[in-house]
Amino acid sequence: MMNRYFKALVLILLVVTGCGPARQAATSGSAYKSSYVIGFYNLENLFDTYHDEGKNDYEYLPDGANQWTEAKYAKKLSNMAQVIAAMKEDNGVWHAVLGVSEIENRHVLEDLVAEPAIASAGFQIVHYDGPDRRGVDVGMLYRPEVFKLIATESIPFTFTPSRIDWSQWTQEEMDNFKTRDVLMCRGTIEDEMFAIFVTHLPSRLGGKGADLRPRGAEIIYQRAMELQKEFPGIKIVVMGDMNDNPTDVSMTEFLRGKEFREGLSDEDFFDPFLSMIKAGYASLYYQGGNNIFDIVMVNNALANPAPGSFELMPLVKQTYYGRIFVKPFMTNQSGQYKGTPFRTFSGGSFVGGYSDHYPTYIVIRK
User: Fold this and answer.
1) Tens digit of pLDDT for each residue in 201-259?
2) The dihedral of CA 190, 230, 261, 284: what is its sign?
3) Residue 234, C-beta contacts closer than 8 angstroms, at least 6 positions apart
4) Residue range of the domain that includes 282
5) What is d(CA 313, CA 36) in angstroms, rounded to the nearest whole number?
6) How far is residue 252 from each of residues 121, 257, 261, measured CA to CA in Å?
7) How many CB atoms lie within 10 A of CB 154?
8) How many domains does the chain have?
9) Which of 190, 262, 284, 339 could link 6 by a cystine bridge, Cβ 3.0 to 4.6 Å?
10) Burial of 303 from C-beta contacts in 10 A (0-12 / 13-18 / 19+)
């Protein structure tokens, strides 16, 4: 009998067969003149080999638990660039915008975009040093000739204003809680206004995380609604490692993620990965189960756009508007973890893989 992970892998591999979606849009002879890739990738602990003051990065030092040497760091950078380059090869274009998480600082992103495999993309960087105790942040890579950056924000995690009951938390616990900020980047693509949110919601570790992820989603939602009022018609993309599935309350209630574009209101988001998880797709495997934590969702202005403006492109079987990018080199081909992402460390040992997450993306066109 097929291993369930292998079955899931076979299903996911169906996503990546054939000509890439952006290339299809550019060569199909249709009326569409422009197509751009917007996506997200959890880089799984992209740390350099130096200590950052105030950060708990000691395991990623040469004398730390992971014996994180320059050679291992170089291998990690090369692997991350290989995946990004493979997506360009598959799609026919570089990402216009690529949100990333689990990065230590701006320096690692500067090293990444300089990698020979992706240097020609000319990616620029948006990054803020955040308060996360382990020292990981989110960031965004973008091509400035496509995405014209106007403004950026680093939005901190706060407990108020919220409709969540925080009575189980003491004031001291709330004051001492530290997690990643949310990154918001506002700019234009072909003169259409976009806001891109990049997030890495709190971990599932610990007994109180079930409230923290809905609160993180609530923070994003509150700011998104403000932007819609300030800039009528703005197109909003929310992406990140949500540490929750599209079916979880943080996504369905606090971000108002909906499965279908039809019937969407301006207070809702369209989540393409809600249908995909129900169909058995996965971007990672957590505690033995198939999950999609790596979500990209869009507001109604992009899901149901005005005529002649950017719209979502169907990517998989002309049915799904999101894509999980999987290649055999990114996946364990044998052993206990066959069919799951080939990660950097396994069982505490450096195995030279890529990430424990697969990247995800959408394609917009007009």
Assistant:
1) 998 766 666 899 999 999 999 999 999 999 999 999 999 999 999 999 999 999 999 99
2) positive
3) 186, 193, 194, 195, 227, 228, 299, 301
4) 4-365
5) 10
6) 35, 5, 14
7) 17
8) 1
9) 339
10) buried
